[in-house]
């Protein structure tokens, strides 16, 4: 009946969920199906959702046990396109229409995303057009195997809740989010999808308000890139990327991690949390932690010499 499903992922955010649902109703494009996936909320989410169910397009599904909500939405989508949005954000009125028009016009586009504004807990805009500078202030295509360059040089520029998926490509390649890397799983998903012979489309207009607050799942930025380090490294090796790109990726992770630790009030505790999340399955784990530890606590000529020797012996030749 519809070509698009809008999946709303929610958990204990009834106070913000209403704004998201209202923004869905205000879309200029109306021909879509809405499923609210409730991950066992313990607040008044059912009561908040109830008035919206009078619209025949809306369905409410409350999980009996906690699940990976994004993967559940992917696996249970039966429409041509899928949009997965967060309960604490706001869609601007023309977002769905703009994204649908791109996917309808370009058959080789696997996903389309948009620029975003950041908002605070009170829905006030704190930063406009977050990705504009990184994307040169224009709409563009991200070609096959180009996303790694964005990750290395500009970080992630694809805002997950703005992404509209072409589901035939996702299902044909059996793609899903890696739950074990938590808030970084979307970055890995885009990289994995980018190995295929399809393009991404980025709309530079900010069509989504992304809310920044202390209760959101991806707020702990300290662990995002360190957890992404190893699966991305393995994917790059598997897909025969150059040694230059692989080295650039590992250096990018080291710099990001060091910067994040330095931004913490307690650097030792921050380093400890990184160390506990790194599994020593190969020597690169050890080299990574030695490099971070030395940069934090043991600067100097001798340590730089030791680091060079370690890299020469254990690092990528």
Task: Tell me what the structure shows.
The structure is a single chain. This protein is of the alpha/beta class. It has two domains: 4-211, Spore Coat Polysaccharide Biosynthesis Protein SpsA, Chain A, CATH 3.90.550; 221-314, no CATH class. It is built from twelve helices and ten strands. Strands 1, 2, 3, 4, 5, 6, 7, 8, 9 and 10 form a ten-stranded mixed β-sheet that branches.
Features:
12 helices, Spore Coat Polysaccharide Biosynthesis Protein SpsA, Chain A, 10-stranded mixed sheet, 2 domains, globular, alpha/beta, 317 residues
Largest sheet: 10 strands, mixed
What share of residues are in beta strands? Answer: 15-25%
Q: What's the number of extended β-strand segments?
A: 10
Output the CATH class name of the largest domain. Answer: Alpha Beta
Here the CATH topology of the largest domain equals: Spore Coat Polysaccharide Biosynthesis Protein SpsA, Chain A
Summarize the structure.
42% of the residues lie in helices and 19% in strands.
Write the layout of secondary structure elements.
Blueprint: E1 4-10, H1 14-25, E2 33-38, H2 45-49, E3 58-62, H3 69-75, E4 81-86, E5 90-91, H4 95-105, E6 109-119, E7 125-127, E8 140-142, H5 147-154, E9 164-166, H6 167-172, H7 185-193, E10 199-211, H8 224-238, H9 243-262, H10 267-277, H11 283-297, H12 301-314
Parallel strand pairs: 1-2, 1-4, 2-3, 6-10
Antiparallel strand pairs: 4-9, 5-10, 6-7, 6-9, 8-10
């Amino acid at each position: 009946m519809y070509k698009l499903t809008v999946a709303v992922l929610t958990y204990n955010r009834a106070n913000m969920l209403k704004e998201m649902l209202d923004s869905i109703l205000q879309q200029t494009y109306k021909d879509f199906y809405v499923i609210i996936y409730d991950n066992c909320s313990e607040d008044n989410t059912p009561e908040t959702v109830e008035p919206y169910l009078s619209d025949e397009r809306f369905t409410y599904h409350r999980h009996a046990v906690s699940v990976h909500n994004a993967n559940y939405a992917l696996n249970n989508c039966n429409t041509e396109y899928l949009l997965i949005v967060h309960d604490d954000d706001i869609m601007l009125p023309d977002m769905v229409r703009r994204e649908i028009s791109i996917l309808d016009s370009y058959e080789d586009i696997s996903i389309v995303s948009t620029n975003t504004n950041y908002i605070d807990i009170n829905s006030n805009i704190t930063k406009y057009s977050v990705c504009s500078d990184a994307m040169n202030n224009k709409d563009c295509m991200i070609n096959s195997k180009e996303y790694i360059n964005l990750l290395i040089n500009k970080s992630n520029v694809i805002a997950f809740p703005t992404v509209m998926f072409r589901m035939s490509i996702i299902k044909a390649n059996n793609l899903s989010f890696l739950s074990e890397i938590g808030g970084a799983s979307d970055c890995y998903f885009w990289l994995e999808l980018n190995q295929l012979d399809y393009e991404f489309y980025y709309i530079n207009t900010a069509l989504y308000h992304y809310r920044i607050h202390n209760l959101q799942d991806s707020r702990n930025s300290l662990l995002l890139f360190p957890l992404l380090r190893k699966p991305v490294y393995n994917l790059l090796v598997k897909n025969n990327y150059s040694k230059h790109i692989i080295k650039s990726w590992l250096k990018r992770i080291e710099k990001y991690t060091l910067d994040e630790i330095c931004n913490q009030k307690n650097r030792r505790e921050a380093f400890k949390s990184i160390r506990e999340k790194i599994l020593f399955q190969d020597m690169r784990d050890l080299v990574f932690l030695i490099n971070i530890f030395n940069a934090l606590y043991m600067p100097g000529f001798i340590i730089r010499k030791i680091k060079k020797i370690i890299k020469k012996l254990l690092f990528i030749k």
